[in-house]
Every structure is written in structure tokens, then in C-alpha cells.
Amino acid sequence: MRRPDPVGPTEGVPAAAGRETAADTAGPFAAVFRDCVQQRGLSLDRVRERLAAQGINVSLATLSYWQRGRSQPEQARSLRAVDALETILDLPAGTLRSLIGPSRPRGRTTSEAPGLDASRQVYGERSHVERALGAEFAQFNNDFVSLSIHETVRIDARRRCRAVAVKQVIRATRDGARHITVVHDEIAAQTATLTAHYGRLGPVRRLPDLRTVVAEIHFGRPLARDESALIAYTLRYGPEPAECPHYERRVRTSPHEYLLHICFHPDALPTSCHRYFKEQIDTPARYERRVALDVSHTSHMLLHKCPPGVHGMSWKWPR
After folding, report:
1. What residues pair up with 248 in beta bridges, in sequence order?
2. pLDDT number for residue 101
3. pLDDT beneath 70, residues of the chain
4. Is 213:235 a contact under the CB 8 Å cutoff?
5. In what order do the strands lie in the sheet with 161-172?
6. What are the phi and psi torsion angles at 209 (to 5°)?
7. Where are the domains of the chain?
8. pTM
9. Domain 25-99, CATH among 2.30.30, 3.30.200, 1.10.260, 3.30.70
10. 116-316 adopts what CATH topology?
11. Which branch of life, at top level (predicted)?
């Protein structure tokens, strides 16, 4: 079941044993780099030596930062090292490069809001979101960027999504930001309800033909540039939603933190759960990793500085 869009709901995990490390909370580049080094049975010192043999000098500390997500390769020399790493780790050309997120700002700067190109890079051409918003899509939530997104998805005993609770902190990129637009698609729009907990619920549009709900949540007053605001809401699905095999969020910028928490009913537990990353809604997953269920029948994924794209979790039901 495809989900949100805020920057809106659309705007992602523990190790298999359940104990989370710094690398587990990093983005796809860090996680894939770390996993591939471990799978090849190499130490970072050995990786450094193999790079040096090709005339590429990268410190052990830098390699450690890369695999823990504390930094990422951005300069030309570092990107040359990434190309060499793909050979050392027996990966197809471009595998690691494609997972590097956007350059991180240095010093105190204000992140630029996403534009039309950034939106289409994630949603693709003529997506349900663009069709639902029409001409508004070009300015879709362009007054701010997301700092953190936390959402909890509840799956009932019939394997159906009953509710999604979203809490989001945003920061204005210009003076005058007044509201956030949230878009949920692939739902029974006529019977879904949305309740705002922080912020004031504005107009709600139901588009049954697109199976989409579009709503505004107002901040209460215009924000000044760099000012932050917190919004929270719950979307409740209708009486007969479709069976839910996955949930995903589309991210056009790089929030500092994204937490996705899936809560399963104890009478309907999946056989397996996986987190995944896609560059665009309709492209194949470029990264997938198994996620464990905990003692409370829930599973989660936590990302810091996650790159633009589609971050989600999928699960398989028993036959």
C-alpha cells in the first residue's frame, strides 16, 4: 500500500538481532558499504591498504565515518575512492555512488526548499500526487524543509492498515510559511478521516477517482524564516481498507531523522519484514534489508540524514 506524501506523508532499522548501532541508523550508502565490507570478510585497514595500492589514500578514520554515516564522500578524491571500492567489494559500477545523498551544508545555513524538479525526481511524471494537486504541485510545500518525521502505522488482525499517526517538525525557508499540505494516496478516500493534534486542520479534499486525500494543516500564524513548527495528525482508514503489504514515505529533501514504526496485531504477524530504498516511486528497490520484530509485535526503521527518494518497509504474510 503506497502511502504519504508530506511533505506531507510522503516527505527509514535495527540489526537483525534487534540491537541498534550508529551504522544501523545511517542512510543507504553507509549501511551498504558496511555490509559489503563485512560480507567480504575485510577489515577497514585492509580496505585502506587496497585503496593505497591503487594510489588512493583515504584515512582509516574517514572509512570508519563513511560506514557509520557520520560523513559521506563528496569531494572528487573521495568519489574516486568510491569507484575503487566498488571494484574491491565486487559491486557493479555505480552501486555505491548511486546511494550517496546530497552534499551536506557546512556552517550555519538554511536548507533550500524542494522545487518542481526535486518533486518529480521522487514522484515521477504525472504521479497521483501531481494529479491530485494540479497546478499547486509546482509549489508543493516549498516554504519549508522537514527536520524530523516520525510515523506509526497500525495493522489490524485482518492484515489491513487501520491508522497512521504522523509527527513532523519543519523549518521555514522563507518568511510567511502558513501551512503544510499532506497527501495520502492508495486509500478509500471517501471513508478515511484525518484528525490534527498539533496544528489546525484546514481544508480536506477527497478524490475517490485517485484514491487520494489532500489536506492542509495550518501553523496558526505565518512563520519567520528559519523558525520551526511541529505538526501531528492521525489518518484513520475506512471500514474496509485493502490488505496492506508495505508502507513508504517519499522524501524530497534530507530530514535529520526519519522513524517508521509498524505495529502488527498479535493475531496477524508477518513471516518477515524488510526495509527498502528506491530513488523514485516506480523504480526497483536499490537497497533492501531484513528487519526483526520485537517483543511488542512491532518493527521499525530509523534513518539520520536520509537521502531524497522513497524509504519504506514491506512484509510477507503467512499463506
Report:
1. 312
2. 67
3. 1-27, 101-113
4. yes
5. 193-198, 228-236, 161-172, 144-155, 257-264, 298-304
6. -65, -30
7. 25-99, 116-316
8. 0.69
9. 1.10.260
10. Immunoglobulin-like (2.60.40)
11. Bacteria
